[in-house]
Design brief:
The chain contains ten helices and 15 strands. With 337 residues, it is an alpha/beta fold. Bound molecules: 1,4-dihydronicotinamide adenine dinucleotide and (2R,3S,4s,5R,6S)-2,3,4,5,6-pentahydroxycyclohexanone.
Length: 337
Amino acid sequence: MSSTDLRIGVVGAGLMGADHVARITHRISGAVVSAVVEPDAARAEAATAAAPGSRAFADIEDAIDASAVDAVLIATPGRFHEPVLMPALAAGLPILCEKPLTPDSQSARRVLEAEQELDRPHIQVGFMRRFDTEYQELKRLIDSGEAGELLMLRCVHRNPSVPATYTQQMLIDDSVVHEFDVVPWLAGSDIRSIEVKHPRRNPRSPEHLDEPILVLMELASGVFVDVEMNVSVGFGYQVTTEAVFESSIARIGQPSGLQTWRAGTFSIAENRSFTTRFAAAYDAQIQRWVDAVAHGTIDGPNAWDGYRVAVACEAGVEALAGGVIPVELPDRPSFYA
Ligand SMILES: NC(=O)C1=CN([C@@H]2O[C@H](COP(=O)(O)OP(=O)(O)OC[C@H]3O[C@@H](n4cnc5c(N)ncnc54)[C@H](O)[C@@H]3O)[C@@H](O)[C@H]2O)C=CC1
Ligand SMILES: O=C1[C@@H](O)[C@H](O)[C@@H](O)[C@H](O)[C@H]1O
């Protein structure tokens, strides 16, 4: 550790928290994990063992009081984000908060209000797809106008399976939440309305889930977007987008793993989890946050983006029961210009 390294407190050391501890320790420059807050003793021990020099704390307030952290990375389940965001903001610390910012728009608004007490945005939200090189290339193509007018985006979001704790609502606010961020970013236009269609149910789905679902968004620009959200596909993890232009199409997210020719068959390895599909994007997201923090800024989706997405998720959850649900946003505060 060098004396200039950013000392990060990681709150929540489950799947994503442990993954982030490993990347900060081994792949990110200019930062170390100095504190871990995790109620599960075995996970806390594994995380501190994985990050030499780090210490476990009972809560983020203790780590702040002990002057053990310069920044906070939040990787607890979404409903526990606000109780960490608030003390971290009160201490004026930079924050990388895994998605969602908070689980609903009311709590997201409270966070926006608390952040606006400070001189500048301190929160970056972990919508890592914006750091994926293919998404970035597609955005450049759309922005450049080279391909002409964008007419539609056709998105696919497939998970091999989900844990028993995954609910119907999570199809929207745990999974499609990513498209609610990345689609307006790609297309440069806010979501105007959301509708959900229920195709034939996959007999492999857990009993309590009615999926796949088809989420239809209309953007303010008139661009239409469909998202196939499908969480029991078994074969692997797939996130793709096809952009339909006037006289061309562009595609991202095709399999790019090991290719084999065997017994008369050609095959390409597919991802099995977001942890590999987006590994480079998570690395880039955290490296750019660490670099930005050194200059007193953030470099990625901010708390306003988190709030916009929370509003879209509420409309999406309402749309699960039917209807075309409008997405209405207040004006963006100049603080987030
Ligand atoms: N960007 C992405 O692609 C992904 C993001 N996520 C997000 O990451 C966050 C964590 O998700 P997972 O790692 O999958 O969950 P997880 O359940 O594997 O881990 C969460 C950890 O937080 C701990 N925890 C619970 N309450 C806490 C508290 N008050 N203080 C400190 N620790 C607490 C739990 O004991 C657990 O170890 C969520 O916000 C989730 O939406 C999850 C998966 C992928
Ligand atoms: O954020 C994520 C998970 O929480 C969610 O459950 C998955 O569907 C997403 O693909 C992943 O990126």
